[in-house]
Amino acid sequence: MVPCKAVLMFLLSFVLSVAAHAADSLHPPSGFMQPPAHRVDAAKTVNCPAVPTPFTGTLDFRSKYEGSDSARATLNPQAEAAFRDQTQNITAMESLVSKQVIAWARSGDPRYVACVVNTLSAWANAGALTGAAANHTGKSLRKWALASFSSAWLQLVFSPAHPLAAYAAQQETVTRWLSQLATLTASEWRDLPLDKVNNHSYWAAWALMSTAVVTQRQDLFDSSLAIYRTAMQQVDAQGFLPNELRRRQRAFSYHNYAIQPLVMIALFARANGVDVTAENNQALQRLGAKIIASLDDPAPYAQQTGVTQDRAFLQHTTNLAWLEAWCQLQRCDTALNQRITALRPLQNTRMGGDMTHLFAAKHDGHD
Known about the structure:
By secondary structure, the chain is mainly alpha-helical. The protein has one domain: Alpha/alpha barrel (Glycosyltransferase), CATH 1.50.10. The chain has 14 helices and two strands. It has helices at 5-20, 77-107, 110-126, 136-157, 168-189, 199-215, 218-234, 242-245, 251-271, 279-293, 299-305, 322-329, 334-343, 355-363, and strands at residues 347-348, 353-354. The chain has a two-stranded antiparallel ribbon with strand order 1-2. Strand 1 and strand 2 (353-354) form a beta hairpin. It is globular, with a radius of gyration of 20 Å. The two termini are 21 Å apart.
């Protein structure tokens, strides 16, 4: 049977994509290199949202846990409100970029690409987020934003549709800026004392990994894996992270938060020929299995901390979007697959956006 024209065109675009990236030493998992859907509706109005004002000042923000004890688990409503106000342009920018890339992936409409290019170029040309970080929260905002921008941008960079072909100058500008942010992020999160290496370091490592692929910087890839391996050594025999257990009533929540970037790093490492899942006797599997087993009853974390666990984070599906990626690393049983299916589509801005789009096809056995 002769393949249809659409199949032939897809195969041709895939071959061209492989050729285009043949010289690249680093690449993302296959889900990040999918062609977009072809549902362009020329009659549809696509209005690019206004670009949030680039944040060019000192990264000096209040912590939402300001005034809390050493557990850093009690929210300060006034400080949280101030934090949200201070960082609204940054988080709005993260959301805008992610949503536009998702819209492009679902439609193939090049107008969404133009939105992303213009938006990120504006921040790159302004040197946004490259100022000094005055405190821990400032450093945190930089690496979170970097994770959002790079994990979205690389989908355009590696698409077989070559959506950035008409934007060579802007692509160079954005890539240079992301590289600059990554250099700052790497310097801020390396060589920390072990008692300070926690979920923040893991998210910094994920930002470095996604940017390593965008910029083809092996040093960032290596720095990311170094933090990942430190994280794996922190996982104890029972699957707990001692530094996250300190968060008392939020220990379960922070274990769930900590694993998200680690799963992404492991997937990106595997895509580049490095299998890190065996580290510390399969520590990542222990960590994930403990979290998943506790989704309906976090008693293990209550027993470890001596306090009832706050499960409010489970009300937001973005906090479980990592499960789509997890099922690429581990064989997921029927019960977990059913839980994931019921939650779809799962999205998380800082891990690449539409996680169901990026991983579900392969997860469901269609790739």
